[in-house]
Amino acid sequence: MSAPTLHRRAGEVVANRPLGAYRQLSVVLPALATPARPGQFVIVPPARADHVLPRTWWVAGERTEAGFGTTLELVVPGTGALPAPGEELQLTGPVGRGFGLPTTPVTAVVAAQGAAGAAARWLCELLRSVGCTVHLVSCADEPEQHVDLVLARRSADGVVLTELGSAAATLADLTHTLTPSVLYAAGPLSLSRTVALVAERAGAVSQVSGVGIGAEGLCGHGLCGACDLPLRATAGRGATVRPCADGPVLRGAVVDWAAVVDGDSVVAGDAVVEMGES
Amino acid sequence: MRRPLPRVTAAAGCGGSGRELARFGDLAALDAVLVGPVGARPGEAAGGPVRTRLSVSPSGLVHTPAPVLPAAQVVDDLLPWFRARGVPVVLAVRGGTTGAVADLLLGLRRSLDFGVVAAVEIDLTAEREDTRPSIGALASTEPAGPWSADPQACLKLLSAAREQLPRDLLLTAKLAGECPDPLATARAAIGGGARALVLSGSVPTGPQEHLVGPAVGPVTLGLVSRVRAAMAAGRVPDVPVVAVGGVHDVRTALLARGAGASGVQLGSGLLGDPALLWEVHDALALAPDPEDLAPPLPLVDDDHATPVPTTPAPTD
Lengths: 278, 316
Fold this sequence. Notes:
The complex is a heterodimer of chains A (278) and B (316).
Chain A: E1 9-19, E2 22-29, E3 41-44, E4 55-65, E5 69-77, E6 88-95, E7 107-113, H1 116-129, E8 133-139, H2 149-155, E9 158-162, H3 167-178, E10 182-186, H4 189-202, E11 205-209, E12 229-230, E13 240-241, H5 243-246, E14 249-251, H6 269-277
Parallel strand pairs in A: 7-8, 7-10, 8-9, 10-11
Antiparallel strand pairs in A: 1-2, 1-6, 2-5, 3-4, 3-6, 4-5, 11-14, 12-13
Helix pairs in contact in A: 1-2, 3-4
Chain B: E1 8-10, E2 33-39, E3 54-57, E4 60-63, E5 69-70, H1 71-85, E6 89-93, H2 98-109, E7 117-123, E8 127-134, E9 137-146, H3 151-164, E10 170-176, H4 182-192, E11 196-200, E12 203-206, E13 209-212, H5 217-232, E14 241-244, H6 250-259, E15 263-266, H7 268-272, H8 276-286, H9 290-293
Parallel strand pairs in B: 1-15, 2-5, 2-6, 6-7, 7-10, 10-11, 11-14, 14-15
Antiparallel strand pairs in B: 3-4, 4-13, 8-9, 12-13
């Protein structure tokens, strides 16, 4: 209980600009005690009085300057009322366990989908800064949903664009060619499942986001239980992990993906299985 | 000596396992923390749903029942954690049959850390499984609607739970307005041994789905007022009442207090802002408790053994 408690703070929005199909908010907060990491998110109160659940947004960048404070870059869906520059924004966070960086320079593959692409781009920058070779796989059906490609091409050794339907095949090919030591997934649960299965097949480590940050029907505080995932080691006893509280970044190998009951479409989870059998 | 009813807790399933709340404030500042729902996982063997599903509706949420915490996890992990911190626990227990609840309570009771439990809440809104003898098998179970639809079953369930628990432990029963006769169910629950009622305003929207949130606030207030009126009229034994459903800020918590609820439970309001738990706790600590006001106990002066007039005699 020595950890500081999470509470809502007021930040000032200094920029609100388009980012593909999304918008990027820059928010200035009092300086953070610990630096933010890619994979973390913020919790923002609902936009309207008749909404009950808060909104969750990926953190796509952080810059702390002494005497000024911390500027957080947030990627948000373009819909709904968003604060204009100069306005105040209440937020909790950054919360959660971010992506871990390898201690030695290795080859890494980062897969991203949707608004999480900006967080993945930030992860690529950090991986490069510790000497890793990074390849980014951006999965989207609409061109506008590939976010931050200009910056991503600067920070990654290779950028591969793919449609959702062929994400599993692309990842499997890339894994076969590059033999990466670690695969990262930022995005909805379906992408995490695909990456975890590909990594398992290739004998690599995977770090995946265990909850689709930004999806509806989530509280983000780790209280509602809508993000619970079954654990593999205890398949018989029914132990679960709660990504909003214990994650959102989990090792792909700890989750029992076969038992994940998920409302959204399975991105080619079956395709991976078929490829392995053929 | 009965422990007092906590002024505010999370509603079952809305506070995680209770431990997640420690990230947002000091649990020791609260009266108690609710842990639950505790139960045997019903669909585990059949690969049933492992998590709840929330869908947003205007001013509310539609949710499926929260997955239960396995009793083993509560005994091995949660109760020692709360006991080490000196935080009293309210256990919310859910089960489909009387035997399942009794077995569950027996297992929990055997925990070395059971002393930290301040109250046990039996969920009468849960689905009851009807057990019927059948040919060629011991019994067949099938859903038979919520417990609260059958007052006699509630009486049996509560008295079975009462038998498993220490005599001085507060036993509460949670019931919703969806049952055909809330007053009969309340009478049965109190007759079975419940010494407080948790009244939920959640509205059933389909099989295993309920609407909660600010939208159901008036339903909760109506139910609390109705039960309190019946208590005042002597049709239901007088016990403290806890309101749950639609309590989403300090104002609605005080409204519930005004309607006669001694305590509140926070559900979807907590999902939006967990700090609300401490805000509501502080607000209710300052407001007068209906339990303190309602029973007009005659005050007796020890020295003279004569009733002391509590109010000045009216002049003119």
